[in-house]
Amino acid sequence: MNTQLRILVQLQEVDSEIQRLEATKGDLPQRASALRGRKEALEVKASELRKDLEQAKRDRAQAETDFDLLKEQKAKYQKQLLSVRNNREYDAVTAEIEAAEKGLDQLESRIIELLDAEGRYQSELEKTEKELSEVSAELEQVEKALAEKAAQVEAQLRELSNRRERLLLQVERPLLSSYERIRKAKGGLAVVPVARGACGGCFTQIPAQRALEIRAGDRIFTCEVCGRYLYWKDDTYSGSR
Ligand SMILES: [Zn+2]
């Protein structure tokens, strides 16, 4: 086989392997990033719920204090009622008692509302915290898997990168830039074997005469349709099929 073509074939093997290794990280980086986003959002939500819960508790404590004070006042008015000296005083004290009762009713409703709200915040907070701990655990797993994968792949990638450097030194410049251009444009595949009489990249049938020339391997040919470099690989040939 033409020496340059042989090197291109090796280069393609190295590049395909690099591509495959990068792909083994799969969706781990995206999953980690999505989980980090969810974790952050849940943390914000939990912190807001904690604030709302604390506020509702403070409001309820205040309402309970107000309730007790008003109840004491009402008791005072009720005592006063026993010692009124005329109708005018009686009416005035009665009005105070009624106002206090109205106020007590309102405070009672408010306290019930706040208790309800506390319950809602509390259960929502528990739900959020549960979800948060699940997401955190999942994130930890994904990050661990990613770190392991990256560590595994790193050594192989370094080795491949060294091999690649050595091969690059042996490729003629114009051929190399053409190789890189095709590889970028064609999904990482610039050098393909002839398979079953067709281009191994785009599967266009190759004329028999050209196939023979490729098989001889003296010169470098490219596919007339996709532009990829073609080489002959005996075990992929089954032109009779
Ligand atoms: Zn092709």
Keywords:
single chain, 241 residues, mainly alpha, Helix Hairpins, four-stranded mixed sheet, 5 helices, disordered C terminus, binds zinc ion
Write the layout of secondary structure elements.
Blueprint: H1 3-24, H2 28-81, H3 87-168, H4 173-185, E1 191-195, E2 198-199, H5 208-216, E3 221-222, E4 229-232
Helix pairs in contact: 1-3, 2-3
This protein binds zinc ion.
Please summarize what this structure is:
The protein is mainly alpha-helical and 241 residues long.
Question: What features would you describe in this structure?
Answer:
The protein is mainly α. It folds into two domains: 25-168, Helix Hairpins, CATH 1.10.287.1490; 173-236, no CATH class. Helices cover 75% and strands 5% of the residues. The protein is built from five helices and four strands, in the order ααααββαββ. The protein has helices spanning 3-24, 28-81, 87-168, 173-185, 208-216, and strands at 191-195, 198-199, 221-222, 229-232. β3 and β4 form a beta hairpin. The protein is rod-shaped and about 130 Å long. Zinc ion is lined by residues 199, 201-202, 204, 223, 225-226, 228.
Q: Are any ligands bound, and if so which?
A: zinc ion
Question: How many DSSP H or I helices?
Answer: 5
Characterize the largest beta sheet: strand count, sense, and whether it forms a barrel.
Answer: 4 strands, mixed
Dominant shape: rod-shaped
| Quaternary organisation | single chain
What is the terminal separation in angstroms? 25 Å
